[in-house]
Structure formats: C-alpha cells, structure tokens
Design goal:
This protein has no helices and ten strands. It is an all-beta fold and 102 residues long.
Length: 102
Amino acid sequence: MSRYVEIRPDEEGLPPEILLGVGDIVRFAASGGRLRSGNSVELLGILSVGVVGTDGQVLSPLGPPSSVLIRAQGPGRAVVDITSGDPFRSPVTRSLAIRVEA
C-alpha cells in the first residue's frame, strides 16, 4: 500500500536520504522545489492551499505556494531541491536524496 508522507524541510534532523516505496506521495511544507537529478520521482506540483466556498468555488489566499508534492514512480535514486522560508526575502534551499525501492 502506498503512503502519504509529510516533511517540513525547515526542521533540523532530516536524514541525508529518504527511502520511499513506489507509489508513495511526499508533501513538503515548502514554497518551491525542483528535481535536480534522477527519474525515480515525479514533481507533481508546487501548490497553494485552497478551500471550497459555500457557492462551490475554490478559494485560495494570496501569497506564495505552501506545498510541494512528489510521487515515487519507480525504483532508483533522485535528488530534489526544496525551497522553504519567504521566497521573496530569505529563501532557504536544501537538497534531499531520495531512494525508491520496488
């Protein structure tokens, strides 16, 4: 069974490598990201939170994105860069190695 994993990249103590299974989804509480190398993961998107209003419209607050979603799509290794903090004043980018096992 696939898992949904939440990671806050601004927390201390992140391991140098994260081990995932194929199909796992990872949500980083971050304002940006990019796939630096590898093809074992897919960057699904850099997203903002939205809610459904009483009239059925999806509403989103103004401001930078707050989530980066990645899906483990096949065995192998990848490196992702995740940007957290205020993207306009003092962004912090961390690289994270991901290993995906079948």
